[in-house]
Amino acid sequence: MKKHTIVALVQDRPGVLSRVIGLIRRRGFNIESLAVGHSETPGVSRMTIVIEWEDVEQVVKQLYRLIEVLKVSDVTDDPVVEREMTLIKIHAPGPKRPEIVALSEVFDAKIIDVGANTMVIEMTGSPAKVQNFIDVIRPYGIKEMMRTGRIAMVRGVRGHNAEEFVENANGHAERVPVMN
Amino acid sequence: MSDKRTGAQVMCEALIRNGVDVMFGIPGGAIMPFYYAMWEYRDRLRHILCRHEQGAGHAAEGYARASGRLGVCIGTSGPGTTNLVTPIADAMMDSTPLLAITGQVGSHVLGKDAFQETDITGITMPITKHNYLVKKAAELPYVFEEAIFIATTGRPGPVLIDITKDAQQATIVPDWNIKLDLPGYKPNYQPNRKQVREAIKLLLSARKPLIMAGNGVIMAGAVEELRAFAEQTRIPVITTLHGIGAFPEDHPLSIGMPGMHGWVHVNRAIQECDVLFNIGGRFDDRVTGKASTFAPHAKVIHVDIDPSEIGKNVKVTVPIVADARLALQAFLSEFPEREAFAELHGHASDWMEHIREMQSKHQHKQQYLNRSETEHMSLPPHDVYAALTRALNTRGNYRVVTDVGQHQMWAAQLIDWYRPRTHITSGGAGTMGFAVPAALGVAVAHPNDTVWAVCGDGGFQMTNQEMATIIQEGIKNVKVAVINNGYLGMVRQWQELFENKRYSGTPLSGPDFAKLAEAYYWKGITVEDSSQVEAAIEEAYATDGPVLIDFRVEREVNVFPMVPQNKSIGEMILETPHES
Ligand SMILES: Cc1ncc(C[n+]2csc(CCOP(=O)(O)OP(=O)(O)O)c2C)c(N)n1
Ligand SMILES: [Mg+2]
Fold it and tell me: 0.90 exceeded by the pTM?
């Protein structure tokens, strides 16, 4: 099954994360990763969700049913930049340290903490590169690892500025009177 | 009164400002401040005390479905709110505008397992269009305005507002200067004209076109427009279970109901048609049967207010996201000159002739019951429907609410339907126990109509305590017909047809329903023979008050035609296979 990267702009209201996750859970999708944070516009958050499923178009449509959802795009086949960050606490006894430092340098990873027998490495990069680094470093003995999950952004002028959704939506949506 | 209000008073005023004048509910600790306040507004806000919150919810649904207005129900925290879950889910499935107002424990104990605390916003998240937890009185004017706006616009649905007790009690100066901030909620009402023209082109080139009308036509108030559309194009019209009443069944272009218990000629026509124009229906699996085999030759035009319905179950050639009435108006205004229809009219009339021929081969209405099989029966259910239909047709001004099961399908099939909002049933959720409380709500909405609740003996026993509510409220225009077959009949039918008659968990006893009715101060009548049916119905009409008739019908009669689950709608069973 294909992995899809979905980017959503949502109004930052209580429960919105629950609603988005609930909708995906209802269809039995497994969420591989999910990252949420503030966007460029106050009151609007941006989410990147990675799921494995074929019929993602329907999910995208159903996400629009949620009141807080402003914009959803399946960017899987779009030109995007994707990044993921990971923190790795690695088993690093004295003699192994130079090797680990050298490997980290190759991958542009940073050593951010050094303990008696461990080091903590911070690595940011494309999800593939992060995975690559993890594979290479794993034989030394990973004690703890935390991945943020990917965040994605469409390159160039395409993509969506949150402001435009908030701006042109002021005031009431029209109400069509029902006749009986 | 000064400008100061309690949160509870604000709730009442917000409801009144939004045109609410009746609510159905049951009080309790966490919602008591609201009940305290509503006493002051009782001349403008009628409260109807139900016997169970499920009843309150269905009554509000019945009110909404019969009137097109918002239905409002109330429950206290904990069990009071969980009892509302079924009607909320029901309203979600049937796109019914419903507002559920629930009390919540004080905000200082939220999340601490306080007495009668239930996370109702969490529970109802997937079964509401939207929901709110309000902890501050100052938010109430805005939240009520937004909630009611969301419940009643776009594709309507249930919205729940959970209000902590302290928010109801706090005193504030409400700010009624409300500007809704809903950047993500912009229902699209106006159709795309290009798509409309595309659809017209497709229709004009059709040889075997069909119109399928659903609930959306009724909710949008598009009945007149649909009629004009059908008459201009002369395309045969199908009405789904929830589309019943969207098009009069005595119209020469009406061909009837599709789906699991739809007519053979209708399902065959769907399987043969080349253009299917679905307006305001959602291609429920009870309509489509096995979706991959549905309407195999058809190009589909689908008009729906909810974009997520388009392409969900059936592949669509021309999608149109719009309000049904505005869409049909756009079609009518974009229609070409009369001459352009000449070819379509020719094809449509041949096609209609073909459909009518199938219909005559495959019987019609009452004849679906094999008469030779019923000769020994003292009361075949079909005799009840025949007499009821005659009474409805002669007396007019009726609404029929049905429960869920065999009796529901017979009602849809056998009663003659002419007007919108006269047939009210639980379709998407199939909620047994819907009819009696919903009939209460319908009777409140239409005090001058006679409201018939047609129930099974199973579903009736789920919510019949609302008979007491009906009496207490002095409601006289409700009549209940129990189609009493001593079984959970629809399940028994499946067991008979597909499970070698293993009647596991379906034989059902009950009290003497007429006596039960009498105990509730209703009139109760028992009917055991076909010869008594008409007189009983007459007596029900003649009685100035609610009446229940216990129709003790033949126990093992089946609803036909029938499409077995997950089969193509082309494969219908027409009668009980004879044992060899
Ligand atoms: C609340 C609920 N429980 C169970 C069902 C499953 N169910 C569907 S039809 C049916 C039988 C209904 O029996 P009755 O009310 O006697 O009507 P009949 O089919 O006999 O006319 C049942 C149990 C349901 N639809 N709703
Ligand atoms: Mg029964």
Answer: yes
Collapsing DSSP states into helix, strand and coil, what is residue A156?
Answer: coil
Distance A17 CA to ligand 1 centre (A): 37
Which of the listed residues B90, B94, B404 should we mutate to test ligand 1's pocket, taking the one with most ligand atoms within 8 A of CB? B404
User: Using N-to-C axis directions, what is the helix angle for B53-67 and B435-445, rounded to 10°?
Assistant: 50
Closest residue in chain B to residue A169, using alpha carbons only:
B183
**Could you tell me the domains of chain A?**
3-78+159-175 (3.30.70.260), 82-151 (3.30.70.1150)
Nearest partner of B565 among B494, B483, B489, judged by Cα: B494
Give the bridge partners for B552, in sequence order: B484
Nearest to B450 by CA among B524, B544, B549, B525: B544
B104, B116 Cβ separation under 8 angstroms: no
Q: What is the C-alpha separation between B10 and B12, in angstroms, rounded?
A: 5
Q: Please state, as a whole number, how many other Cβ atoms lie within 10 Å of the Cβ of residue B432.
A: 22
Mean pLDDT confidence for A29-46: 92
pLDDT in tens, B521-562: 999 999 999 999 999 999 999 999 999 999 999 999 999 999
The backbone torsions φ and ψ at residue B513, rounded to the nearest 5 degrees and listed phi first, read -60, -35
Which residues form the pocket of ligand 1, taking CB atoms under 6 Å from any ligand atom? Answer: B 403-407, 430-433, 456-459, 483, 485, 487-491
pLDDT at residue A177 in the model: 43
How many angstroms separate the CA atoms of B69 and B449, rounded? Answer: 17
Question: In this structure, are residues B25 and B56 in contact, taking their beta carbons and an 8 Å threshold?
Answer: yes
ipTM of the complex: 0.87
Q: Which of B273, B238, B242, B276 is nearest to B257 (CA)?
A: B238
Across the interface, whether the CB atoms of A169 and B152 are under 8 A apart is answered no
Q: Pick A70's closest partner by Cβ from B121, B183, B326.
A: B183
Sequential DSSP letters for B105-139: --GGGTTS--TT---HHHHHGGGSSEEEEE--GGG
Is the Cβ pair B308, A179 closer than 8 Å? no
**Ligand 1 nearest-atom number relative to CA B462:** 1
pLDDT in tens, A106-153: 999 999 999 999 999 999 999 999 999 999 999 999 999 999 999 999
Nearest to B478 by CA among B80, B195, B62: B62
Which structure tokens are listed for A26? Answer: 């209802």
Structural domains in chain B, sorted by start = 5-172 (3.40.50.970), 193-361 (3.40.50.1220), 365-552 (3.40.50.970)
Chain A residue with minimal CA distance to B326? A176
Inform me whether the C-beta atom of residue B327 falls under 8 Å from chain A C-beta atoms.
no
Cβ within 8 Å, pair A67-B130: yes
For ligand 1, the distance from its centroid to the CA atom of residue B503, given in whole angstroms, is 14
Give A23→chain B minimum CA distance, Å. 7
Task: Verify whether the Cβ–Cβ distance B307 to A170 is below 8 Å.
Answer: no
CA distance B136 to B138: 5
**DSSP string spanning A67-131?**
TTEEEEEE-TTS-EEEEEEEEEEEE--GGGHHHHHHHHHHTT-EEEEE-SSEEEEEEEE-HHHHH
β-strand partners of A33: A50
DSSP state of A43: T
Cα distance between residue B54 and residue B67, in whole Å:
20
Positions of B marked catalytic: 53, 115-116, 165, 490
